[in-house]
Amino acid sequence: MNMPQTQLTVITQVTDNRQGFAHCYFRPHNCGRPGEEAGGLSDGSALGRRWVGARGLRTSPLGQPPPQDDPSPPPARRTPHPGASAETAFQLAGPPGAVPRVGKLNSATNLARSPRGGAPALILPSGARWEGGGSLPAPRGSTNGSACSWAPRYAPRVLKTRRAQAGPFSALAKVARSTPRARSARLTASARMDSETATQAPTQRYFTWDEVAQRSGHAAERWLVIDRKVYNISEFCRRHPGGSRVISHYAGQDATDPFVAFHIDKGLVRKYMNSLLIGELSPEQPSFEPTKNKELIDEFRELRATVERMGLMKANHVFFLLYLLHILLLDVAAWLTLWVFGTSLVPFLLCAVLLSTVQAQAGWLQHDFGHLSVFSTSTWNHLLHHFVIGHLKGAPASWWNHMHFQHHAKPNCFGKDPDINMHPLFFALGKILSVELGKKKKKYMPYNHQHKYFFLIGPPALVPLYFQWYIFYFVIQRKKWDLAWMITFYARLFLTYGPFLGLKGVLGLFFLVRFLESHWFVWVTQMNHIPMRIDHDRNMDWVSIQLHATCNVHKSAFNDWFSGHLNFQIEHHLFPTMPRHNYHKVAPLVQSLCAKHGIEYQSKPLLAAFADIIYSLKESGQLWLDAYLHQ
């Protein structure tokens, strides 16, 4: 009984320099219904053909069919051939119209004599072995002349499997002639779905920037690019540890530099990103959008590499330990003030000032832990972050992460930076946005007087009248367990001060502390951003967007302590995970980079920075009025 033949088409021919033998890409040529060719690559790309028949694997010239009745075709041998090595692949055709099964190799496919001296061997991936001197028999009842199309599906039923022996080629498999009595094949396929084993398609998906830009934060489907690789974050953004909004702000854009800036264990994060990978940019596409400065990006990445080699991303734990101890000592001193001097007005006010200092300084310290800039692992940073912000301040870490990382990702970008959400309900911020607001004839407040009412609804009210109730709404509405940490703060407050002041006295002290802390917090945090450019997201490069939105305050011992080293706001935004005590060391390098590319690096005295908040509010209010009346 004549067994049917399965033809393999050579897709391309490559060589292995180390062995000096020719290798090929193959696909089954006649594995569909009788008279039909299997799906896959076109014959136009074939260099030649080899087929498996009753006596092994044989060869026919390009464009000619194989001989049908050759009783004893000679086995194929390795063919010496000079050239360059390349990656190879093999395909097993499925039913008509189905996508062929494809295997991918990291080394070239070998055509070699079986180690037992039998038929030649076709080497397959990851230790799989396909053996058989004859063609694969079709299943019972099948009208197909070859088992090639059904073998992958029914392999457990009709094919025996075995692993290749360990050795230099333990990750490969061979097609060898079996005994005439068996006339069957053996096939082992790896179930691992990774880049080194069987995949659905051998080709990599490529995209253009226009395709990526269409999947922005305003679309249901969201993509972003990191190191030229395209990731689909449509579903993952809800599970993103940093919050759904911060990652969505870079949907449709290149996010390479923000990714590097925010993560301290990039290798670990990249492992979780593999499931989101859908392709990469086409080779002709640039690595980032045309709105970004390529030279500036390249030089900043070199600067970051230099900073890391200098060890400036490593924290001095003694510095942060002493900083925490000074906060705890101030907290104890506030309680001792009432215990020693009583609860009269002067000790009460002194206690409130000391507690306000504790709250402000704890705010700067939790900021360090929140940015993962103290410890080399996220676990310890998160633990201490919960302790400082939750137990020492009574606020949720999840709320801070949700708000603050958005600010760092897109500072002063309207609709993406929550720190400027008071526009346009309370203030008209920035020259561009204020003019837009005036042209639209919108007036929620008398913005031309905003530099005056800022003293009423800005520093005095932000923390006690807004943040204080919103943090509880946030954790309860989102069911965050940070509420437990917050409760410990309020319990400690009433247990330590209740015996001295009673319920009303403790509430009075608490809101007085929040009132003083609010002034401290607003002036320090807004002096670096409100006077700077405020606009819509223009998709600028990482350096440009940070430099346009931030400015520095001159270094001094008091300024560093008073602002928690946030007087180095530029350096902090460029390197958010850098320990604060290293900001002044990297500042000259950043200044040099800005000078080279013509970017303004602003640094000013502390009081001048405070005054610029008022001046900028007055200017933007006047721009709004002119546009409102005359445009």
From TrEMBL:
<dbReference type="GO" id="GO:0005789">
    <property type="term" value="C:endoplasmic reticulum membrane"/>
</dbReference>
<dbReference type="GO" id="GO:0006636">
    <property type="term" value="P:unsaturated fatty acid biosynthetic process"/>
</dbReference>
<keyword id="KW-0256">Endoplasmic reticulum</keyword>
<keyword id="KW-0813">Transport</keyword>
<keyword id="KW-0276">Fatty acid metabolism</keyword>
<keyword id="KW-0443">Lipid metabolism</keyword>
<keyword id="KW-0249">Electron transport</keyword>
<feature type="domain" description="Cytochrome b5 heme-binding">
    <location>
        <begin position="204"/>
        <end position="282"/>
    </location>
</feature>
<protein>
    <recommendedName>
        <fullName>Acyl-CoA (8-3)-desaturase</fullName>
        <ecNumber>1.14.19.44</ecNumber>
    </recommendedName>
</protein>
<feature type="region of interest" description="Disordered">
    <location>
        <begin position="56"/>
        <end position="103"/>
    </location>
</feature>
<keyword id="KW-0275">Fatty acid biosynthesis</keyword>
<keyword id="KW-0007">Acetylation</keyword>
<dbReference type="InterPro" id="IPR012171">
    <property type="entry name" value="Fatty_acid_desaturase"/>
</dbReference>
<comment type="pathway">
    <text>Lipid metabolism; polyunsaturated fatty acid biosynthesis.</text>
</comment>
<dbReference type="GO" id="GO:0005739">
    <property type="term" value="C:mitochondrion"/>
</dbReference>
<keyword id="KW-0496">Mitochondrion</keyword>
<dbReference type="InterPro" id="IPR001199">
    <property type="entry name" value="Cyt_B5-like_heme/steroid-bd"/>
</dbReference>
<keyword id="KW-1133">Transmembrane helix</keyword>
<keyword id="KW-0472">Membrane</keyword>
<feature type="compositionally biased region" description="Pro residues">
    <location>
        <begin position="63"/>
        <end position="77"/>
    </location>
</feature>
<keyword id="KW-0444">Lipid biosynthesis</keyword>
<dbReference type="GO" id="GO:0062076">
    <property type="term" value="F:acyl-CoA (8-3)-desaturase activity"/>
</dbReference>
<feature type="transmembrane region" description="Helical">
    <location>
        <begin position="496"/>
        <end position="516"/>
    </location>
</feature>
<dbReference type="Pfam" id="PF00173">
    <property type="entry name" value="Cyt-b5"/>
</dbReference>
<keyword id="KW-0812">Transmembrane</keyword>
<feature type="transmembrane region" description="Helical">
    <location>
        <begin position="318"/>
        <end position="339"/>
    </location>
</feature>
<keyword id="KW-0560">Oxidoreductase</keyword>
<dbReference type="InterPro" id="IPR005804">
    <property type="entry name" value="FA_desaturase_dom"/>
</dbReference>
<comment type="similarity">
    <text>Belongs to the fatty acid desaturase type 1 family.</text>
</comment>
<feature type="transmembrane region" description="Helical">
    <location>
        <begin position="453"/>
        <end position="476"/>
    </location>
</feature>
<dbReference type="Pfam" id="PF00487">
    <property type="entry name" value="FA_desaturase"/>
</dbReference>
<dbReference type="InterPro" id="IPR036400">
    <property type="entry name" value="Cyt_B5-like_heme/steroid_sf"/>
</dbReference>
